[in-house]
Amino acid sequence: MSDTPRNQPAADQPKLNPGDQAEPGAPGAGENICPECKGSGQIGVTSCPNCGGTGKIIEGIGGA
């Protein structure tokens, strides 16, 4: 059993933001501009909660 709390990623796993649909580098996924902050990383004077202030999200690409 792990000592990592359920809601926190393990140290070797990438941190996902609420807007991310997949881990970075996952097959069939890629970076896109955050639709909430339009890529600025900010909403008003605070960091965008959707992308974690990066201005980018990871989402599925292609497909039918």
TrEMBL record:
This is Uncharacterized protein. It comes from the Bacteria. Residues 1-34 are annotated as: Disordered.
